[in-house]
From TrEMBL:
Biological process per Gene Ontology, one example term: methylation
Reactions it catalyzes: cytidine(1402) in 16S rRNA + S-adenosyl-L-methionine = N(4)-methylcytidine(1402) in 16S rRNA + S-adenosyl-L-homocysteine + H(+)
Protein name as catalogued: Ribosomal RNA small subunit methyltransferase H
Alphabetically ordered keywords of this record: Cytoplasm, Methyltransferase, rRNA processing, S-adenosyl-L-methionine, Transferase
Enzyme Commission number, as recorded: 2.1.1.199
Location (main, coarse): cytoplasm
Length: 319
């Protein structure tokens, strides 16, 4: 279940570009929101498909992403830019007027992983930060300095499916009693030191991969943000508007899959209970989950963990 998202960013075209463009079904004078601007690979594609009457709204939590958006698209009268979480899209006037498409390309961007100073990478030493928005919430170092052993173990298990979660949590708590854990290399080495060696023939990933993913998901409240963002997107979409979400691990994809199913299909009835109100679908799934195609995988095998789901908002039934 580890996250290939960050690695998948190294290719030139953004992940699943053609499928995203097709899924969003951009119309010339429509209004679209890219809630995860990153470095604008998908945004650029949407903009190319918009006419002079179209609108493109760009959001990102990360101030560096927003600076790139301002620099590259700030002068385009069709574009509006807002720094913040996509969970808050309802509070942004530009997005509240109705959207014809919403894209969430989840996870972290390659600049976030590549710059050691952001603290996301176990491969590059840097301050142990991991916040997409460095001005909000606790850094990974702050959280690891105060969280209880059981809480750390739970996060590693739930968000990283790390089987050695208890052992790693115990080692973190023992180490921090001697010295604060403030660097990515320090944490990566500590984790590696308590992990069993890979057996011969066993696929080897860095021993800190799962733990770093888990801590990042926790520090950025990624799953709670996704749940709230999907609700906000559905509320802001116009009938016929499209929702496209790219996930990079099973925890995210499960949330997206269940969200679409909950709004598209009547829940299974229970014969022992009286029938509740008639179910009215608000979404229609557009096809099944999509994976990167063989051409993209051949050029960028790390896109293998990307899963795209697309749904369309339905019109409210007439009374
Ligand atoms: C995978 S990158 C997006 C790449 C982008 N599609 C492109 O083509 O360059 C994910 C971006 O989403 C941002 N992000 C993640 N969660 C967010 C949230 N809840 N609200 C706003 N931005 C978020 C991250 O800061 C990161 O810049």
């Amino acid at each position: 279940m580890t996250d290939g998202g960050a690695d998948a960013r190294s290719a030139h075209l953004p992940v699943m570009y053609a499928q995203v463009m097709e899924g969003l079904h951009v119309v010339e004078d429509g209004t679209y929101l890219d809630g995860t601007f990153g470095r604008g690979g998908h945004a650029r594609g949407v903009l190319q498909r918009l006419g002079t009457g179209g609108r493109l709204l760009l959001m990102d939590k990360d101030p560096e992403a927003i600076a790139v958006a301002e620099q590259e698209f700030g002068a385009d009268p069709r574009v509006a830019i807002h720094r913040g979480s996509f969970t808050d899209l309802a509070h942004w006037g530009a997005a509240a007027t109705g959207l014809d498409g919403v894209l969430f390309d989840l996870g972290i961007s390659s600049p976030q992983i590549d710059v050691a100073g952001r603290g996301f990478s176990f491969g590059k030493d840097g301050p142990l930060d991991m916040r997409m928005d460095p001005d909000s919430g606790e850094s990974a170092a702050q959280w690891l300095a105060r969280a209880g052993e059981a809480e750390i173990a739970d996060v590693l298990w739930q968000y990283g499916e790390e089987r050695m979660s208890r052992r790693i949590a115990r080692a973190i708590v023992a180490r921090r009693a001697e010295q604060p854990i403030t660097r990515t290399a320090q944490l990566a080495e500590l984790i590696a030191s308590v992990m069993p060696r890979a057996k011969p023939g066993q696929k080897e990933i860095h021993p800190a991969t799962r733990s770093f993913q888990a801590i990042r998901i926790h520090v950025n409240r990624e799953l709670a943000d996704l749940e709230a963002g999907l609700d906000a997107a559905l509320a802001a979409l116009r009938p016929g508007g499209r929702l496209a979400v790219i996930s990079f691990h099973s925890l995210e994809d499960r949330i997206v899959k269940r969200f679409i199913a909950r709004h598209a299909k009547a829940p299974a009835g229970n014969r022992r209970l009286p029938a509740v109100e008639e179910f009215v679908p608000t979404l229609r799934a557009i096809g099944d989950a999509q994976k990167a195609d063989s051409t993209e995988l051949a050029g960028n095998p790390r896109a293998r963990s990307a899963v795209l789901r697309v749904a369309e908002k339905l019109a409210e039934p007439r009374p």
